[in-house]
Amino acid sequence: MTQVGTSADSTGAPPAYIDRPIDGRQELQLQPVQISTAPPSAWTSDPEERRRLGRRAQLLAGASVTYNVIEAVIAISAGLVAGSVALVGFGLDSVVEVSSGLIILWQFRHRLPETRERQALRLLAFSFFALAAYVGFESIRTLITGADPDTSRVGIGLAIASLIVMPLLSWAQRRTGRALGSNAVVADSTQTLLCTYLSAVLLLGLVLNATLGWGWADPIAGLVIAGVAVREGLQAWRGEGCCSPIADSEGSAGHCTDDCCKD
Fold first, then answer.
1. Alpha-carbon distances of 221 from 77, 84, 88, 185, 228, rounded to whole Å
2. What is the domain range of residue 65?
3. Where is the Cation efflux protein transmembrane domain (predicted)?
4. pTM of the full predicted structure?
5. 129 located within any domain
6. Which CATH number covers residue 223?
7. In angstroms, rounded to a whole number, what is the distance separating the alpha carbons of residues 85 and 149?
8. Which of 31, 88, 130, 234 has the most CB within a 10 Å radius?
9. Which residues, at least 6 apart from 118, have a Cβ–Cβ distance to it below 8 Å?
């Protein structure tokens, strides 16, 4: 078998081997292959469109922060009144989500040095760990002492509202982030979606306590929230995956371990 052709064309494109019958034999011939370097179809490269999407991303981040502030105030207040550790933990998680949103918003407007981003992530991790320690301790104490929280209609209403608002906000953030090709914005949408899951856990615990008198459901929901907080804290501390601002700034989206940046 004879090999003919050139190893590459003038553009530097890699060669491809193809079979061609000559005189009853199979001959390998090198043919250039054109490789497209165009960005993914989901991204937009138009400068004006990217500026518009950038403004939208900032508005969505601001909306997320505003809602989480209101959510935190209502949840913590109602939780203290009802003696609900799950409701207080949900409110504290909203405070952490506000911090996360502010970090992402700050990064999006100002290109931060790497060391400053890492320090911000470490502070965020400590916030998650403190949340997990408090909620975990209170949940275990409530289970041991058998203290039953009061019914909180405000908490139930808040959980229902979050189940409606958060998925819509997360969808808008993810769509904008993918159009921009921004891992940070997509990661923010994942954080918002996490709040939806926590809202469902909270609602289940509050409803079971209100309807069936299962007081233990509230601290169990609190333990779930504490577990999620530990996971988020570890991710922030390590700066792993695309779900942290530092990953986007270093161009390390390839290390994403939770598929949050993938279609």
1. 18, 10, 11, 29, 11
2. 50-245
3. 127-235
4. 0.65
5. yes
6. 1.20.1510
7. 8
8. 88
9. 239, 246
